[in-house]
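Repro:
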Amino acid sequence: MKNGIFFGIGVGPGDPELLTVKAIHAIRQADVLIAPKTEKKDGSVALSIARPYLKPDVEIVYQVFPMVRDFAADTSAWQENKEEILALLRQGRNVAFLTLGDPMFFSTYIYIYRLLQHEDIAIETIPGVPAFAAIASKSGRPIVEGDDILTIIPATAPPEKIQQAMQVSDNVVLMKVYKNFPAIVDQLKEHDMLRHAVLVSRAGLDGECVIDDLEAQRGKKLNYLSTILTRRAEVGAEEKGSGAR
């Protein structure tokens, strides 16, 4: 029996209409959908986004993936999920792994991909729209232009690494700001990036929250799906001259 295909599918930040045509085609080819979740949450956000495109008879398998900082140090929690996926593929069934945003961008999929890439199976990874791109388009904020340097920073990184990154960046995207938001506000202020910052939680999902005054919300508890876009420049694009490409 021929093995099935393993699809890693980015479903974007929240709006089902932001799925690519290729992602929708792959979802409709899938016999089984893997819906990742953490131990603390019921259901799957990625599955809820993809639901309008599911086949009526598709099998949905929820797999728990612990949130880890050093995956390479201990893969034991992932091996059981890998074996379950392999068993399904060896039955000749196509398996789709759904993930928020893009599969290769701060994604659980990366770890399961590394475990499966040396197996004798076909893998197709389908990109998705990252949250910061959707936020920029919806809010009318260019991410970069001209010779700007953009840095994407996980706010969970050590403070000294965040400091170094901000020092050399014109524009910044900050991901995972839910844990140390007050410290991030201080660093943005220090680097003259606070005034132009916008924070969006649950972009494109129910309960979306947009915060323009980050200083006023310093003590606010943020959703895990929270992203900050900001820039250092004091002038807007209209004052930079033409330079169209």
